[in-house]
């Protein structure tokens, strides 16, 4: 499955759950605040919150290893409080899963995602809304790792269980994920059927799910050679600007892997974290403008390719008040190999084929220092060129 399809899957039909692995930064002194919290032996609820904030600050700064250690230590200290703090402890595991994904540690990613789900299942029950939402996230993670059959089976189980317990919104989200996975696997008929099921489950008053079905149909039309399908869909639907922008189309990223000769020479062993933060405006018509590289760490030759990918995206047009130029977003692109232990050593390294992993950093304020200074002064990001 290609990176853009996974990005689309993550952005549409996402359950609203504040305890998932969305990245949020509250301050820029989080590490010091965590140290002070630990020094005064603060209550577990405060310590978990401080640990989450510190780990996200470290992640936004590109210190993935530090973020992982902060979360693992916090889990070690606080997992015994899961009965009292199921949501916060779940958040520790969820955030660790995100960090592990970007760091390239597939085993830790899988384990943290599973423990996140098990925490809620044990404390709240399998049919609790929060549990089912995290089960959707766990299935998403498994799909991202290529275990598509497991992901589809899990979506199907959640769909049946949620519908039986009267949680049709979750059932519809699971059905839509089945549709999007089928689309990624070129099972066009199944994609249309599951999208129809999602709309039926959501009910006639759910305009969002109906729009998502149209996105599936548009993707199918594009594959059949209809170059005007995106423009036609964009002309029919609009999205309120108070939620996460819905991606209609993103071109595939070019193959980022070096030639086999360089791989065999050991070039591809990624001894550091390679990432780029891309800032961009989404115009009211859903097109992207003023995409810029805010900062990069080791991506070099891949940065222009990623910039072109962002510039070519199309989002659902936005319903904005008159005069608003659009929405400003920042995405973190991490390029890395899978973390593994090569033959002849006990030291784990990122190695193998490289892959791209994306997360929305807008709410983390993970901007360039100049942008941070502008925000601190109450000045919004520069208005995109060509927009009144």
Q: What's the topology here?
A:
Blueprint lengths: L2 H9 L18 H10 L4 H17 L3 H15 L7 H18 L2 H19 L4 H16 L3 H17 L3 H17 L3 H15 L4 H17 L5 H8 L2 E2 L6 E3 L10 H5 L9 E9 L5 E10 L5 H9 L2 E2 L2 E2 L7 E14 L8 E12 L8 H8 L12
Parallel strand pairs: 1-6
Antiparallel strand pairs: 2-5, 3-4, 3-7, 7-8
Helix pairs in contact: 2-3, 3-4, 3-5, 4-5, 5-6, 6-7, 7-8, 8-9, 9-10, 9-11, 10-11
Protein model, in words:
By secondary structure, the chain is an alpha+beta fold. 52% of the residues lie in helices and 14% in strands. The chain contains 15 helices and eight strands. The two termini are 39 Å apart. Residues 1-27, 261-268 and 364-388 have low confidence and may be disordered.
- Could you tell me the number of beta strands? 8
Mean pLDDT: 80
End-to-end distance: 39 Å
Q: What proportion strand?
A: 5-15%
**Which spans of ≥5 residues are poorly predicted at pLDDT below 50?**
1-27, 261-268, 364-388
| Main sheet overview | 4 strands, antiparallel
Structural class: alpha+beta
Percent helix? 40-55%
Rg for CA atoms? 21 Å
* Number of helical segments with 4 or more residues: 15
* Net shape: globular
The topology string of helices and strands comes to HHHHHHHHHHHHEEHEEHEEEEH
Strand order of the largest sheet: 4-3-7-8
Which descriptors apply to this entry?
single chain; about 400 residues; alpha+beta; two-stranded parallel ribbon; 8 strands; globular; disordered C terminus
């Amino acid at each position: 499955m290609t990176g853009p399809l996974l990005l689309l899957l993550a952005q549409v039909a996402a359950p609203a759950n504040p305890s998932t692995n969305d990245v949020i930064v509250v301050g820029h002194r989080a590490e010091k605040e965590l140290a002070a919290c630990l020094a005064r032996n603060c209550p577990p609820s405060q310590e978990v919150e401080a640990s989450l904030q510190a780990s996200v600050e470290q992640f936004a700064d590109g210190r993935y290893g530090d973020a992982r250690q902060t979360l693992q230590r916090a889990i070690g200290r606080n997992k015994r409080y899961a009965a009292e703090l199921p949501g916060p402890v779940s958040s520790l595991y969820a955030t660790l899963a995100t960090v592990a994904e970007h760091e390239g540690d597939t085993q830790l990613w899988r384990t943290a995602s599973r423990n996140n789900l098990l925490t809620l299942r044990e404390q709240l029950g399998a049919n609790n809304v929060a549990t089912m939402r995290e089960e959707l996230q766990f299935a998403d993670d498994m799909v991202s790792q290529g275990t598509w059959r497991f992901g589809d089976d899990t979506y199907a189980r959640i769909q049946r269980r949620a519908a039986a317990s009267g949680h049709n919104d979750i059932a519809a989200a699971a059905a839509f994920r089945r549709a999007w996975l089928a689309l990624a696997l070129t099972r066009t008929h199944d994609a249309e059927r599951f999208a129809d099921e999602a709309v039926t489950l959501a009910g006639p008053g759910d305009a969002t799910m109906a729009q998502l079905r149209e996105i599936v149909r548009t993707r199918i039309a594009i594959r059949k050679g209809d170059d005007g399908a995106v423009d036609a869909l964009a002309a029919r639907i609009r999205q309120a600007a108070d939620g996460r922008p819905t991606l209609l189309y993103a071109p595939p990223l070019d193959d980022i892997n070096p030639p086999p000769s360089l791989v065999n020479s050991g070039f591809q062993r990624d001894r550091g974290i390679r990432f780029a933060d891309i800032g961009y405006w989404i115009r009211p018509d859903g097109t992207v403008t003023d995409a810029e590289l805010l900062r990069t760490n080791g991506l070099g030759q891949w940065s222009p390719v990623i910039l072109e990918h962002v510039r070519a995206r199309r989002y659902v047009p936005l319903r904005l008040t008159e005069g608003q130029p659009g929405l400003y977003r920042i995405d973190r692109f991490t390029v890395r190999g899978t973390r593994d232990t090569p033959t002849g050593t006990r030291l784990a390294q990122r190695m193998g084929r490289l892959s791209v992993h994306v997360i929305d950093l807008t709410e983390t304020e993970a901007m360039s220092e100049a942008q941070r200074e502008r925000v601190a002064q109450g000045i919004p990001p520069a208005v995109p060129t060509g927009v009144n």
